[in-house]
Amino acid sequence: MKIAVINFSGNVGKTTVARHLLLPRIEGAELISVESLNAGEGEGQAMRGRQFGALQEYLQTIDNAVVDIGASNVEELLDLMQKYRGSQEDFDVFVVPSVPALKQQQDTIATLVELARLGVPPSKVRLVFNMVNSAADVPAHFDLVRAFLKVKPIATENAACHLSANEVYGRIRGSGADLTTLARDETDYKALIVKASDTAEKLTLAQKLATRRLALGVVPELDACFAALGLGENTANNVVPLARQAQ
């Protein structure tokens, strides 16, 4: 399965969706970042939008990929996709994250229109509603996008495909850490804190404990959002056993 994460707008959570929602749950997937060379978290391959020719060639050689398309490269990449006729068919799904801000909703609509113009069918375009606390919040916060889709149903929407704001993403940015692995960490940080010899060491351990607790809270939300995307049988859901509580 090959998935493109795309939106004309920045600050909608494309990297969060690519790295933390999709990548760990697509078995054997490779992360490819299409972004300015000084951007990203130093994980996976990186290229610019103008290298779309090389990207579409490489996609023929692998089975599973998550392509994170940075906002500064979207327009150039889509223009090249138009020139390489049929290249949009290399992607099984286009995932479009959005946030409640008006400009970002407008950019989301522009993204959906452009994908439709390229010939991508609605069944292959999925929305992720980011920065909302529950599915019940989606109608009020995304009224512009949802009203547009009622008139022109060019994408698939499901209010259950939502993510809330969580500081854990900021905590692990640039570390390459996997939230599922963090949530499964069974280290007894409280015991280590008691044994620690100085305040700095205690604080470092306390931060690791706090990050694990945040991961334990966010992984079920990511699991639920991923399930609601309905990406098919080619995916493997790595569900974290959450019966135990954080220490």
Keyword list:
single chain; alpha/beta; seven-stranded parallel β-sheet; 10 helices; 7 strands; 13% strand; disordered C terminus; Plasmid stability protein StbB
Describe the structure.
The chain has 247 residues and is an alpha/beta fold. It contains 10 helices and 7 strands. It has a single domain, classed as Rossmann fold. The protein has helices at 14-22, 52-59, 71-83, 102-117, 138-141, 143-151, 168-172, 179-184, 189-195, 199-229, and strands at 2-5, 30-34, 45-47, 65-69, 93-98, 125-130, 162-163. The protein has a 7-stranded parallel β-sheet with strand order 3-2-4-1-5-6-7, with helices on both faces. Helix 4 (102-117) links the parallel strand 5 (93-98) and strand 6. The longest helix is centred in the C-terminal third of the chain and has 31 residues, at 199-229.
